[in-house]
Amino acid sequence: MSMNCLEFRRAIAVQPRQLDAAARAHRDGCPRCAEAYAKAMSFESLLDRSLAVEVPATLADQILLRQTTLDRQHNSGRRALVWRMAAGVALAVGVVGMSWLALGPQQTLAAMSVAHLSHEPMALTTQGTLPGVEVSRTFEQLGVHLRHTPVPISYLQICPLGLRRALHMVVQSPQGAVTVMYVPDAETTRRDFSERGVLGRELQVGKGVLVMLASSRDAFDGIEQGFRAAL
User: Fold this and answer.
1) Backbone angles phi, psi at 88, to 5 degrees
2) Do 116 and 226 lie in a common domain?
3) Are residues 123 and 222 in the same domain?
């Protein structure tokens, strides 16, 4: 049974490492979906590296030594509390490590969006307009409902942005290509910025954050209005 592009994108969004024969056949015959598959596997590799945080080798010994000492001094209720604290320390080490690997020195959504541009430079040259049904369904994968397509979108992918997942779009405006990132379930304060020579705008739209990046801000107002009307 043959598979179309939309069905393939759904498959790699759920289990990119376990594609069936139809999905593999579609990937091998569709350059655009092969590219999307490569990006999905890159994201999976990023998650693997983030989860493979090495806990200090002496942490377990330190916890056991502390527990042995307390066992001699306190009752069983106190011992249970210490074990919960030890588990919390181990979890905190893992979370801090994951955050550092994912975010590095980047702290804001705007900064991470600018950094992400270097990962997908070909997106800026993508031409044409994606079908509205494909745009809506991709947004729905991240729980975002669109009333209608906000603006003509030539490129759309779900991409990692730090520890979040974002909708990475490109809009071809008369003033040039504009990269648009929408991050669901995030909050920010409206601001215009310049980051690494890129002009941008970050603002709250609906229940998420919209980030626009370009060499000029001329198209930002129109794109912002389109997303406010659609979300």
Assistant:
1) -65, -40
2) yes
3) yes
Backbone angles phi, psi at 55, to 5 degrees: -80, 140
Q: What is the mean pLDDT of the chain?
A: 79
pLDDT, mean of residues 209-225: 93
Joined tokens for residue 183: 């991050």
Hey, which residues does 183 pair with through a beta bridge? 209
Neighbours of 79 (CB within 10 A): 14
Tokens for 45, please give them: 């590799």
Structure tokens at 73: 């001094």
- pLDDT above 90 covers what percent of the chain? 34
pLDDT tens digits, 96-120: 444 333 434 446 888 888 887 766 6
The domain in which residue 91 lies consists of 59-103
Residue 67 pLDDT > 70, yes or no? no
